[in-house]
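thread: overnight batch results

M.L. [08:02]
morning all. the overnight job finished for the chain we discussed friday. pasting input first so we're all looking at the same thing
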Amino acid sequence: MFTGIISGVGRIVAAHTLGSSSQHGKRLEINTPAGYLDDVALGDSIAINGACMTVTALDLAQPQFVIEISAESLDKTAGLGAVGAVNLEKALRANDRLGGHIVSGHVDGVGTVSHFAPVGESVELRLLCPTPLAKYLAYKGSITVNGVSLTVNTVRDGAQGCEISINLIPHTVQNTALRELSPGAQVNLEIDSVARYVERMLSHMNTTPSR
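M.L. [08:03]
and the structure it wrote out:
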């Protein structure tokens, strides 16, 4: 479980294939800020661009950790198969502050950046989201973008999908890998878990026969 509050920006420095077919995943080596891994142990969970992964090796001298990501996860996410900057968040402890919102680390879909430009002191980020996720997106609702807990400012449904806009304050831009986004880039999306449960309850009410 996570909160969507990024605790460090790391970098995938190497991506090794685990086999010769498309059914094989990759082993990723990820560098982190100094001291980031001091309280991390083998088997711990770390969200990488919003996807929950398991630490399989540690090198505190680098500092660096290793994960193995399956072909299924690579197919359902963006930005995890090649060298580049990534957002990192360690798993939530029971006594931690919930600064963002409840995040599971399970990616629901991949969105595409349609706009990324300064507006005053901030940056406006617009994302074209997959149509199946549209029903979960709401004005002032929460969404996780590459692991970052963000608030939706506008929602526009269209023929090509649902476009949402988000305001990124300077702190978010400066302290996450979102600063490297540009139009056309793909991002990992996780919907608010509350919206998921509401949909389940409503669908059950509509299908349960009356007595």
